[in-house]
Structure formats: C-alpha cells, structure tokens
Amino acid sequence: MASQSIRRKWCRLIKWRGTRIKLHPLFVLLMLLSIAAGQIAQIATLFGIVLLHELGHLAMALRFGWTVREIKLLPFGGVLEVEDAGGVPAREEALVAIAGPLQNVILAAFAWLATAFGWVDSRWADGFVQANAIIALFNLLPVMPLDGGKLMQTWMSLRIPYHRTLLWSMRISLLFSFAAVAASLYPLLRGGHVHLNLLMTGLFLAASNWTYRRNVPFVFLRFLVHRSRRADHRVDGGTLAQPIVISENRTPASVVKLLMRERYHLVYVMRQGKIRRVVPEGQMIDGFLASLTGGNADLRFFM
Fold first, then answer.
1. Which of 298, 230, 288 has the alpha carbon at shortest distance from 264?
2. Phi/psi of residue 292, each to 5°?
3. Between vectors from CA 261 to CA 100 and to CA 257, what angle results, nearest 5°?
4. Average pLDDT over residues 274-288
5. DSSP bridge pairs for 287
6. Of 248, 170, 172, which Cα lies nearest the Cα of 216?
7. Residue 1: what pLDDT?
8. Range with lowest mean pLDDT among 4-18, 91-105, 109-123
C-alpha cells in the first residue's frame, strides 16, 4: 500500500515503446510557478534538456536489451526503473549512467555550433549551454540515485563485496545529501537567505537515500536472486573462480555478504586448517534463499 501511494504522487506523462514517462510533483510545481511568472520558454527549455538527458539513458539501456518500466523526471534529472536491476553487468550499468551527462555535452556542443553559424541567438545559447552544464555536473555528484552515485556504486562493486558496496554507497550518498542541506542553510549564519532550490534538492536526496537505507536488504536479496540465475550460465560458458575461504561454522547468510559483483566464487569450507568441502556459489545462494522461505533468516542481518 505504501509503494502504491508513493507511485500516485508521480504524474503520468506519456508512454513510449512500452516505457512510461512520469513527472515528479516538484517538477509540476516548478512548471506552474514558471508559467505564472511568465518564464514559459525557460521551463520548456529545462523540460527538454531533462527529457533528452533521460532519453540518453533509455537509448543506452535499450541497446543492451534492458527492460525499462518507466522514467521518472525530476527538475535536475530522472530515474530509470528497470526489470533487470541487480542483475546487469557493471560495465553496462556504468555506460547507461554516463549516457545522460554525455547527452548534455552533445546538446551544449550543438548549441555552441549553432551560435557559431548564426542559427540561434547567442544569449539563448549561452543560457542553454549553462543549463546543460549545471544538469550534467550536478548529476555526476556521488549521490544515489544520481548518475555519479551509480558510477560510484559500480566502481565500488568491482573492488569490495556487493553488500558492502550497497551500504557504503548509501552512507556516502546520505553524507552528501545532508551536506547539500547544510550548504543551503549556511547563508542564514551570515545574515543571508536560504538557498531554496538547493534545500529542496538536498532534502529530496536525503529522503530518497534514507528510504534506500531501509531497502538495502531487499536490494541485496534481488541481487542474490539474479545472481543465482546467472551462476549456471557463467559455469556453462567457462569462467575464472575466486575463492572464498570460511570456517564451517559460518552461516550462508554471512557468506553471501562476501560475494563480489563481477566474480564467480567457490566457497572453501575449512576445519582445523583443512578443506572439508568446496561449495559452488550457486549452491550457497540457494541454501540461503531456502532458509528465507523456511523463515529461518532475518533480513535485518543485511542492514
């Protein structure tokens, strides 16, 4: 019920190639205020930039064969919801993330060329280039669910276990979100005014990542489900295995937290310095998932 009420807050816009495109109420409010202030051209330009930014993500995702359910547009970017979340290769996720800011670079370059050839007014082009630069650079901040946050998470997942990646990307995102809120309020200490846009953005990102913090166990569980399905395909195609060495008293729940996103693992179970058995990662994951269905595991373990 909670997820349904959250979804209702997003305003349905259009549906394209099976993908729904929605507007966040903040974007709708910004549009209405801009129209009331007579800034129709400015808000139309912002909407076009944000939409093309997200279409850059969508085009790259479709190129990799992802199933994209919907795009949610915010004043500074958007969020893609995909069916394959948690099961896509890190390389694909990184390329999909960078495709949005790259779209802004292309748009800014086009505006610069159009000005050079005299096709558009230079003042409009300067504002257009600046808007693209702001959106691209803002989205590259290391905060989930921004593109920079996804790139950070992808980079971390290649170096530390995936569960630890989820936790640290969430913590770093919360840190930057609260830093944005603090920066928006800092002018008050010097007798100035609150930076309202930065405050609203910081609060939105902080709320999103606080919610994400509670959802980490379920994000990790989704990763394990996809991982279990992909394990057999990796073995069939041949792959190098990275060992995980544990004592025999370790539970499956503690072992799955050691899985690396882009590695295949064989789990070596040790007793008194000797190998007692070797367990493929798929068997270990299946054992953990079976313990969930039997009610013997607590997802709070993954917080």
1. 230
2. -65, -45
3. 130
4. 88
5. none
6. 170
7. 40
8. 4-18
- Least confident range from 81-90, 132-141, 169-178: namely 81-90
Instruction: Give 62-106 pLDDT, tens digit per residue.
Output: 999 888 888 888 777 778 888 766 678 899 999 999 999 999 999
Per-residue 3-state assignment (H helix, E strand, C coil) for the chain = CHHHHHHHCCEEEEEECCEEEEECHHHHHHHHHHHHCCCHHHHHHHHHHHHHHHHHHHHHHHHCCCCEEEEEEECCEEEEEECCCCCCCHHHHHHHHHHHHHHHHHHHHHHHHHHHCCCCCHHHHHHHHHHHHHHHHHHCCCCCCCHHHHHHHHHHHCCCCHHHHHHHHHHHHHHHHHHHHHHHHHHHHHCCCCCHHHHHHHHHHHHHHHHHHHHHHHHHHHHHHHHHHHHHHHHHHCCCEEEEEEECCCCHHHHHCCCCCCCEEEEEEEECCEEEEEEEHHHHHHHHHHHHHCCCCCHHHHC
The pLDDT tens digits of the residues spanning 224-262 come to 988 877 766 677 667 788 999 989 888 888 889 999 998
Give the integer Cα–Cα distance in Å for 147 and 56.
Answer: 12
| Six token digits for residue 92 | 């694909």
Question: What span, in angstroms and rounded, lies between the C-alpha atoms of 156 and 171?
Answer: 13
Check if the beta carbon of residue 210 is closer than 8 Å to that of residue 170.
no
Note whether 26 and 74 are within 8 A (CB).
yes
294 HSE (CA, 13 A, CB side): 8
pTM to 2 decimal places? 0.84
| Cα–Cα nearest to 224, from 190, 186, 252 | 252
Pick from 153, 254, 135: nearest CA to 212: 153
